[in-house]
Design a protein that fits this description.
Length: 121
């Protein structure tokens, strides 16, 4: 019985750091100095996040990931200097608006979808 308790305690000590790790981490605060962020899936620096090194460093790392894919980083787009593609056609959605006798309003948009399985429409 003592051996069983020992095995249980060893298992809990080895599994608990993995289970306690943040899965998706979103940071929106202001940081100064040396900071280290770790997560298992993703780390997102929100809109209000700012960092001042002040002699320190910032590191963000994915630890023990549960996915097997490539990591990508999105770049920040400056809204004042970005370019717009004006070659795209501007369109409209064909819909109808109606108010019934009781004052209920409806807006209907026709959707074209393929027939379902077995010819169901």
């Amino acid at each position: 019985m003592k051996l069983l308790y020992t095995i249980f305690i060893i298992m809990m000590l080895s599994v608990s750091p993995v289970l306690c790790q943040e899965f998706d981490l979103v940071i929106t605060s202001t940081d100064i100095g040396t900071k280290t962020y770790q997560a298992r899936n993703s780390i997102i620096f929100g809109n209000n996040y700012s960092y001042t090194p002040n002699g320190g460093s910032l590191s963000a790392e994915i630890v023990d990931p549960i996915f097997s894919g490539s990591t990508y980083y999105s770049s920040i787009v400056d809204p004042m200097n970005r370019t717009l593609n004006t070659a795209y056609l501007v369109g409209a959605t064909m819909g109808t608006f109606n108010i019934n006798l009781l004052g209920g309003a409806t807006y209907t948009i026709p959707l074209q979808v393929p027939d379902g399985v077995g010819g169901f429409v």
